[in-house]
Amino acid sequence: MIATGAKQFMLSCMTLDPAQLPNDIASLKAMLLAENKRANEAETRAKDLDAEIENLKLTIAKLEHATFGPSSERRSVLLDQLELQLDELVALRAQQQAAAEIAEAPAEGQQAAAPERKPRRKPARRPLPENLPRERRVQPAPTSCKKCGGDNLHKIGEVKGAEF
Hints:
Order of helices and strands: EEHH
Shape: elongated
């Protein structure tokens, strides 16, 4: 909250109405600086969480490689604890991202911007042209087992026998 004289203005994540903004430059500068500080702090918290997540992933990977040895039971307990901590941090990061996306959503009555989509990856090979001839080959099923020579073969899922 920024106080200027008798007036107080509250910064929020919502869009501000130009009619409600103060006209003096000092108040506007103070509001801008406070919003910039809030954004920097949020970005720093997000980077710290990302770094801690990566650190835990690296530690878990190291512990997974050290599964054999005299203290393998201790390592497995430590590994379980680190995995739980990692799951909690990933969930916390996802909650913060969702909250940031909700806060950045435009107010009602304004048009929503199209969400950014990741470009689709190109396939490794192009599909074959449609004009190429296609033929279907069906291999005949064997009449006996190649390993044991038995001739009691049936289709997968087929039940032989009488049902009463």
